[in-house]
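Researcher: Here's a chain I'd like modeled. Treat it as a single chain, no partners, no ligands.
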Amino acid sequence: MAQVEATTERIISADAEKVFDALADYENTRAKLLPEHFSEYEVREGGDGEGTLVHWKLQATSKRIRDCLLEVTEPTDGRLVEKDRNSSMVTTWTVTPAGEGRSKVVVSTVWNGAGGIGGFFERTFAPKGLGRIYDAVLAKLAAEVEK
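Model: Modeled as a single isolated chain. C-alpha cells:
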C-alpha cells in the first residue's frame, strides 16, 4: 500500500490566531465551513481544539463515502491534527502568519492507499478531488474570518 497525500493552501486576510481559533471551533464554526461533501456532522467530545472527538461522513465521489471519527490534537502552536479512528487518514491544518493581518493555511491529508490498479487510480485522482473539497472549506473559512 502506498501513501496517498492531498495538500492545498490559501492566504487569508485575517490574523493567524483568529483563523486558527475558527478552525479549532468544532462546536460552532467548523460545521459552517463544510461544503456539501460532508454530512452527519456531530461533535461527540470537547468541541474546541485538543481533545475534540468529531464525526462526519465525507463523500468524495458519488460512490465513495468515508465514515470518519476524528480525534483532534494540537501538537504545536498553529497546528491541528485530525486522526481518523476508522482508517489510516490523518489531516493536518497549519496556520502561520503571512504578513500584517494575513495568514497562510495549509491543509494536508495522508492515508494508506489501496494496492493494484485501484490504488493507481486512487493515487492519481483522489488528491485532486480532495484538494477541490478543501479549497471549498478554505474559501468558506476566508469568508467567515474576513467579515
